[in-house]
């Protein structure tokens, strides 16, 4: 029978006395010394996912079991002391409490680490909890962050309002394409983090990850990259990013039914975030429900297939819409200013992302366009979020970027009529294109 030690964690609780007999082949270990979940970076993230340990069910099921317990028993009284001291941990199948580590959530974390090519990962209750936990772990009172001025509205509000008020952590917002400006914004000895999105929300600016990492690392600054818009498409850690964060709610989930996040990075960082006295994940409690983790772990294996279709349709629609004279923003188009950057950084065969934008100039025209697409032709839905199998549309300036004032939106390049489209893959491509054309024709017919 094949040796399954690297793919199957025993479901039997071990006592403290057989501690020294337990094999150290697991990828996830105790709080004080977490071993890397993954150590090699293949060219294709799907290959890394396929190589990750597969967790079988308690009775040999091909799917893992859901460990729904909040707390875990020990067989000997002395074992609990050893667990709280960090001597025994999940590497030896010892669990304390699910706010700390849960077997089902850890399995999803292994998958996320494999996906992003990082040593370790930890999955959280939301994307914002992942982002805020990382920032609060890396920055103390008086700390400083340099961040892209084009960010998801919630992240922008965290940096511009909450962190200065509650934590005395300030942020300088910069144009990340202005490398000199980024360099000058870093205050040596005070700046702790350079933060940006791999592909920005909603303007689809593509970050030159290797160059930005070089600038930051020369100054001793950690690089945190939000890769929510481009899972599988880009792998920021491969190009030097220290930490990659995700809102798993989007493309990775794919069903618009789950809120979740992830922190992917060095084992040392994840360990520090789980520290009993100082760890933000441990103490702030952004805990993922194991039932959610189970759902997500079943979706990640087909993420690559979904992303390829999202990206294929986005490129097709962007190309055709541009030919019709619309002002389309999509990094897969050769006239996009960052097309060559994304082409040089993208993982082979995954395309250029599943999001495109159409600038309708005014909010009124944007709303009329979306109304026709939803209520006249059934092309998609007016809703925030992204990565759903149906197309989702929103006018970013008055929705997901509404936390920014008019001047901030102008600096970020967000026009009042910018419609963000997360292109779905439901139905036939030509069927959906026909619906889009029909809405455009109606726009022309009702033009004043």
Automatic annotation (TrEMBL):
Give the region (Disordered) as residue ranges: 1-22
Q: Which residues carry this modification: N6-(pyridoxal phosphate)lysine?
A: 250
Which keywords does this Swiss-Prot/TrEMBL entry list? Pyridoxal phosphate
Report a single Gene Ontology molecular function: catalytic activity
**Domain of life, per lineage:** Eukaryota
Cofactor(s) required, per the database record: pyridoxal 5'-phosphate
Q: Name one Pfam family in it.
A: Cys_Met_Meta_PP
Looking at the UniProt entry, the stretches that span the membrane are none
Q: What Gene3D superfamilies has UniProt attached to this entry?
A: Aspartate Aminotransferase, domain 1, Type I PLP-dependent aspartate aminotransferase-like (Major domain)
Family note: Belongs to the trans-sulfuration enzymes family.
- What is the name of this protein? Methionine gamma-lyase
